[in-house]
Amino acid sequence: PSISAYDGQIGTGTVGIRDGGSLATAGGRQVRLTYDQGGAGAFVVLDGFLGEEERSRPPDDALLRLNTYSVQDRNAVLAHRRIASWSRPAETDRARVLAAMAAFCAAVDATTYVPNTSTVNLPAKAYEDTFLDEVFADAMEQSGKTWFVDNANRLHWHKLDEAVGFDATVAIDDASPNGTTEFAPVDPRRRQDPYELANDVRVVGSGGNAVTVADAASITAHDADGLKHQDNLQYPDGDATADLTAFGNEALAERKDERPTWTCRLENLPSPGVLQAGQRILVTSAVMGLAAAYKRIAQLQWETPAPGVGHATRELGSPKRLASRRRRRAHRPAH
After folding, report:
1. Contact 189, 262 (CB under 8 A)
2. Burial (Cβ within 10 Å: 0-12, 13-18, ≥19) of residue 273
3. What is 28-97 written as a DSSP string?
């Protein structure tokens, strides 16, 4: 399976069951995939939900059928949660996220990894005929934080690389891996993507007020021979110059440089239990350009080619070719 831990994205994967095997659900469409670690017991690789089912007859077996199920990771629990009418006062991003989870998704633990750090103030707003996604989008646009639900059904709401006590027990090290707690990256890569680069941003508020903010260092580094990296953004939740300027500066902080994404594969891990999507992992790699740096695992894909053998492919940082996190939405003033 592929498991996501970035901006509520839902990871998907497939599970194949031949005739004679069975797939037991934990209730409804919930499915739990575990890995037998021998004396260490079973580790939950994925606690998610069933999607599409496809039945086929594989070419290597003329008798048995193959049932293939698509599965979604735990982030699916945040999707399709309707908000008919809900008004909130001016408050911090954390307060709004916690209030939304209590009102619309109380089954998820929102107490463990929602730290009271790097908070920003959100304006009052009325949510009408929308979904829980909009609450997270509002808070993310102001704070730059990310969110996801881990395999233990715990909500994460914090900065991407912020230390919240959710770190991997192994590290990536291409200098002196020991094969036990430090593993050499296979096919390490770093991508520097200018797709969403912006260094000159004009922000228009709900009442027509507009401000322009720019980053001179980024303009010097990236704009040459007439090339521009400008953008227009709308701030639908107010018109004060200070709010528009803060919103523009947050956008610049995220987009003034090329967006890095790091990918690699770790082989012969002792168990899936040593890694989880959303954990930070310590990385030292000349190719990836990282020296003892903690990066969060935004995407994780597990393979178990043989008992006791685990391979993991992961994407660190911001997933590549991700669309802008600053969205244009209609303004709904608070009641």
Report:
1. yes
2. middle
3. TTEEEEEEE-GGG-EEEEEEEEEEEEEEE--TT-SS--EEEEEEE-GGGGGTT-EEEEEEE-SEEHHHHH
pLDDT at 300 over 90: no
Q: Cα separation of 196 and 141, whole Å?
A: 15
Q: Please give the single-letter amino acid code of residue 63.
A: L
* C-alpha–C-alpha distance, residues 97 and 145, integer Å: 11
Comparing C-alpha atoms, which of 154, 103, 111, 109 is closest to residue 127? 103
- Answer whether residue 324 shows pLDDT above 60: no
Element at 149 (helix H, strand E): strand 146-149
pLDDT bin (cut points 50, 70, 90) of residue 276 is: confident
Q: CB–CB of 270/178 below 8 Å?
A: no
Residue 335 burial by CB count (10 A; 0-12/13-18/19+): exposed, middle or buried? Answer: exposed
Report strand pairing: 171-173 vs 182-183. Answer: parallel
The confidence score (pLDDT) of residue 323 equals 46
Rounded to whole angstroms, the Cα distance separating 101 from 92 reads 14
150-183 pLDDT, tens digit per residue, is: 988 999 999 988 999 999 999 999 988 998 899 9
* 145 neighbors 139 (Cβ within 8 angstroms): yes
CA distance 300 to 166: 15
Residue 260, amino acid: P
Predicted confidence band of residue 322 (pLDDT cuts 50, 70, 90)? very low
**Distance from C-alpha of 101 to C-alpha of 111, rounded to nearest angstrom:** 10
Q: Chain centroid to CA 311: how far?
A: 21
Buried b (16+ CB within 10 A) or exposed e, 225-251: eeeebebebbbbbbbeeebbebbbbbb
Alpha-carbon span 146 to 5, nearest angstrom:
8
